[in-house]
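In this section we walk through a basic example: taking a raw amino acid sequence and producing a predicted 3D structure, encoded as discrete structure tokens. The instruction is simple. Fold the sequence below.
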Amino acid sequence: SKSWSPGMLEALETTTIFDRIAGMQERSARVAVGHRTELVRLESVSMPYFDMLGVVPALGRTFRGDEDRRGVPSPVAVISHRLWLRMFDGADAIVGQGVSVDSQNLVIVGVLPEHFGGVIGRTDVWIPLASARWLSGDTGPERPTSRWFEVIARIDDSISMPTASARFAAEFPA
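The resulting token sequence is shown next.
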């Protein structure tokens, strides 16, 4: 596993090796609704993440492109089906409701399908990758050389795995 900087994600997006590419960062977060508080897993993800994984929300939507622009934090979140049941009692009117994540107020824009837990399998909250620094207060991600997130990618169907590996090694030497 290799950590990447925002500039590297942009460089990866220009290669023809991958059909789709997404950035993600995973960490713990404190979620509060009313008097209820839980420590959960949070994934900060770039716009193509859900589409790349074939995930369609059970309720609402995932992130729009304007909600994942670097330097423009968007106070939105998508939550897991599990969290929706645990903390919101499965309320039908969940989309548009507020939730506190690490003491920041976010608006829930979607609930994911019952069996989806993210790449790590146990995530309960997703926010746009561009909002990760704003939410955590960490200035590290703003440094050009900072390596603070992981990359997931789907190889283009027209390229074999050995060819993709060789081209990747040539284009992005370690």
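Looking at the output, two observations stand out. The longest helix spans residues 161-171. The beta strands are 18-33, 36-45, 59-60, 76-79, 98-101, 104-111, 125-128, 150-155. In the next section we compare this with other chains.
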